[in-house]
Write a structure and sequence with these properties.
Blueprint: E1 4-7, H1 15-19, E2 50-51, E3 57-58, E4 72-73, H2 77-80, E5 98-105, E6 109-110, E7 113-114, H3 120-138, H4 142-146, E8 151-155, H5 159-163, E9 168-174, H6 196-202, E10 204-206, E11 217-219, E12 226-233, H7 247-265, E13 273-277, H8 281-285, E14 290-296
Parallel strand pairs: 1-13
Antiparallel strand pairs: 2-3, 4-5, 5-9, 6-7, 8-9, 10-11, 10-12, 12-14, 13-14
C-alpha cells in the first residue's frame, strides 16, 4: 500500500502577524537610568531646563522615557499584536503571557533626518530583527522555533514618546494557544528548545491532520493527534529566489521530503500517513519561506 497523503495549504491565522519581526544587537546599557542626558539619532542632546531672567526655570524639550526593562507581562492576543504597549512589568515568577528577550535601539537616522517611528523603514527594521533574535534566545537552532508554538512580537515607542527622542524597541516571546489567546509562560525559556523536554512542551502540535479545518494548533504539552516534525526550505524556488513560487510549486516542493520523513519514522514503510503544509503568498511576503511536515502521533 502506498503512503497516504494528507496535504493542503493551511494558513496559521497567527503566523502572519507574529512573524513580522526583526532584531537589534544594541541592548540598553547596564546602569543607564532615567534622567541621563541622551542623544537622539541625529546626535542632538536633550536640552536641560533653562533659567529665565527672573530666576525661574523654563522647561526644555521633554526628555524621552527610558527604554523598557526586560521583564514579563500579562497580555492578551490583541495587546501582543499592537504596535505599542504600556502594560506594567510583573515578576516572571507571577503568571504572565509575554516575556521580553531583547531591548534594542532603533536606527531612525537617514541622511541627517529622523524617520518617524511608524515609517515603513523603521517598522521593517523591527519586523526583521525580533524574529531573527528569537532562535538564539530559545535555542534549538532555526528550525527549533519553526516547529514550536513560540513566536516573537515587538513594540516601539508611541508617537509622542518618539517625538521626545525615544528610539528603543522591545521584543517579547509569546505562545498562541490555538483558541485566540495566549498560553501562560512559566519556567525558564532561554535555551528551552535545545532540550527534549522543552521541545515536547512547546512543540507545534495539532488536534487533527493538516487538512482538517476544525483542527487547532496547540502546544505539544496539550492533547494532540498530529505533530510538526520537520521543515521544508522553500527559499530560492521562485524565479528571483525571493518571489513566491506559487501554490503548486510550493506544494510540490514538500511532498517528496515529507513522504520520506513519514517513511523513515513509520513502523511499516509501505503503510503510513503524513502531512505537509506550505505558506500562502501572504505568509511568504511576511517572511515564512518554509513548509512543515506533519506526522500523526501514535
Amino acid at each position: 500500500m502506498t503512503a497516504a497523503l494528507r496535504a493542503r495549504a493551511v494558513g496559521l491565522v497567527l503566523l502572519v502577524p507574529l512573524v513580522l519581526a526583526g532584531c537589534s544587537d544594541a541592548a540598553q546599557e547596564p546602569g543607564s537610568r532615567a534622567g541621563d542626558v541622551t542623544a537622539d539619532a541625529a546626535g542632538q542632546e536633550a536640552a536641560p531646563d533653562a533659567a529665565a531672567a527672573d530666576g525661574s526655570r523654563v522647561a526644555g524639550p521633554q526628555r524621552p522615557a527610558p527604554p523598557p526593562e526586560r521583564g514579563c507581562y500579562d497580555l492578551d492576543l490583541d495587546a501582543a499584536l499592537a504596535a505599542t504597549d504600556d502594560s506594567p512589568t510583573r515578576p516572571c515568577a507571577s503568571p504572565h503571557t509575554a516575556r521580553t528577550f531583547l531591548v534594542g535601539r532603533l536606527d531612525r537616522a537617514v541622511d541627517g533626518h529622523l524617520l518617524a517611528v511608524d515609517s515603513d523603514r523603521v517598522r521593517s527594521q523591527v519586523a526583521t530583527q525580533c524574529p531573527a533574535a528569537l532562535p538564539g534566545f530559545l535555542g534549538g537552532g532555526e528550525d527549533g522555533w519553526r516547529l514550536s508554538v513560540l513566536r516573537a512580537v515587538w513594540f516601539t515607542p508611541t508617537l509622542p514618546e518618539a517625538d521626545a527622542g525615544a528610539s528603543w524597541f522591545r521584543c517579547d516571546v509569546v505562545a498562541p494557544d490555538g483558541r485566540g489567546g495566549l498560553l501562560p509562560l512559566a519556567g525558564r525559556l532561554e535555551g528551552v528548545l535545545a532540550t527534549v523536554t522543552g521541545r515536547d512542551r512547546w512543540g507545534l502540535c495539532a488536534t487533527g491532520a493538516p487538512d482538517d479545518r476544525d483542527a487547532r494548533r496547540v502546544a505539544c504539552a496539550e492533547q494532540h493527534s498530529w505533530r510538526a516534525v520537520s521543515v521544508v526550505e522553500l527559499a530560492g524556488t521562485g524565479a528571483a529566489g525571493e518571489d513566491y513560487p506559487g501554490e503548486q510549486a510550493a506544494r510540490e516542493r514538500g511532498q517528496e521530503p515529507c513522504e520520506q520523513v513519514g517513511r523513515d519514522r513509520a513502523t511499516d514503510s509501505l503503510q503510513f500517513t503524513w502531512g505537509y503544509e506550505w505558506p500562502s503568498a501572504e505568509q511568504w511576503a511576511a517572511g515564512q519561506r518554509f513548509g512543515r511536515c506533519w506526522l500523526p502521533v501514535t
